[in-house]
Structure formats: C-alpha cells, structure tokens
Design brief:
It comes from Thioalkalivibrio halophilus. Helix content is 43%, strand content 23%. With 111 residues, the protein is an alpha+beta fold. It has a domain of 75 residues. Strands 2-1-3-4 form a 4-stranded antiparallel β-sheet. A hairpin with a 5-residue loop joins strand 1 and strand 2.
Length: 111
C-alpha cells in the first residue's frame, strides 16, 4: 500500500515537471533535409525565421531542430546536434531580440 502511494506521488511529480516544461516552449522550427524551414509549434517572429534561413544557407545545414524556450533570463535556444556551435551562437543572438511577455488581447477602442 505504501509503495503504491509513493509510486503515485512520483508519477504526479514527473507529470507536473513535464507540464511546466511543455508550457515553457515558445516555438519550434524544423530544418528539412533539403534545407527548408518549417514551423512545427508556436509562432516565431519573422526576424527569427530570417535568421534561421540565413544560418541554414551559410552553414549548409541539412536537417535539425531549433526550439525556443522561455527562461529566467529571456528566450533560450535549444538545438539538435546537427546544428554547429557557431550557428547556435547566431541563433541565440537572434532569439535574444524576441519579445517575451503578455499577449495583447485586442486593441483598445478609441472614444
């Protein structure tokens, strides 16, 4: 009985951690084998997508994944192993220009 209780608490903690981690993902971009760029999650800014396309063409990338995660210090970029370190630095610089905050629900009406 006690072991079942401990296992249940453990699963709940793991589920909570996974839920918080999923919420912290802002957007995800996949680089195709042909060098094409596709957004798989979220809505990345146009300037970030432009930076990704520039990095793909400059380094000749053929495949990979780039994920932007909300962190304490702003936006952090996590990349797959197929993205070289120099390209990661360029993408991180582009991600630091991404505004993170509350979304506006609509424009205020003028009277």
């Amino acid at each position: 009985m006690f072991i079942a209780f401990v296992l249940m608490i453990g699963f709940l903690i793991i589920a909570a951690v996974l839920l918080v981690w999923q919420v912290s993902i802002l957007f995800s971009v996949v680089i195709g084998e042909d060098g094409s760029v596709h957004t798989t999650r979220g809505d990345p800014p146009r300037n970030f997508l432009h930076a990704v396309r520039e990095v793909v063409s400059r380094h000749g990338l053929q495949g990979g994944r780039i994920t932007a995660v909300r962190g304490r210090d702003g936006v952090r970029v996590r990349c797959s192993r197929r993205v070289p370190e120099e390209a990661r630095a360029h993408l991180q610089a582009a991600a630091e220009r991404v505004k993170v905050g509350r979304r506006r629900r609509g424009r205020k009406k003028r009277r």
